[in-house]
Write a structure and sequence with these properties.
Elements lengths: L2 H6 L13 E7 L4 E5 L12 H10 L8 E8 L9 H10 E10 L6 E4 L1 H4 L15
Parallel strand pairs: 3-4
Antiparallel strand pairs: 1-2, 1-3, 4-5
Bound molecules: tetrahydrodeoxyuridine.
Tetrahydrodeoxyuridine binds next to helix 2.
Length: about 130
């Protein structure tokens, strides 16, 4: 993966409503790369962010949930774009605990790196949602 290739993926974003183009690439522990872009919809809430497009889309290609070591994000907003709350929750289940989330500025000159815990302290975990019989 190169930053330039990630930036090129902005061209595939389907964002006729907001005009905000976002691209993401999720890299698993074996180095496999899965790209995603945001896809909007006339029924606005039916659209999906680039991060979740990348992660959910990886599953059919054989990727394993919980094994991602890096997630990179870029947009056309001329600054770094922080992932939304829903994406952070999904990322917390797809990423390894020591994974890096790397936010790139549109001009590729700035790069901010975060851990999952920094972006989503105390996210909902699989073991939290197992209902106990009452
Ligand atoms: N968007 C993303 O793809 N990722 C984010 O982290 C934040 C927002 C998209 C959703 C929508 O298509 C557009 O950006 C404007 O919110």
């Amino acid at each position: 993966m190169t930053k330039e290739l990630l930036k090129e993926k902005l061209n595939y974003s389907y964002s006729p409503f907001s005009k905000v183009r976002v691209a993401a690439v999720a890299i698993d522990k074996n180095g496999n790369e899965y790209y995603g872009v945001n896809c909007e919809n006339a029924a606005y809430p039916s659209g999906l962010c680039a991060e979740r497009s990348a992660l959910f889309g990886s599953v059919v290609h054989g990727a394993e949930v919980g094994t991602f070591k890096e997630l990179h994000i870029i947009s056309n907003l001329n600054k770094v774009l922080y992932p939304c709350g829903a994406c952070r929750q999904v990322m917390s289940q797809f990423l390894l605990s020591n994974a890096k989330i790397i936010l790139h500025s549109t001009d590729l000159k700035q790069e901010l790196t975060f851990t999952m815990e920094e972006l989503l302290p105390s996210g909902v975990k699989e073991e939290d949602i197992i209902a106990k019989e009452i």
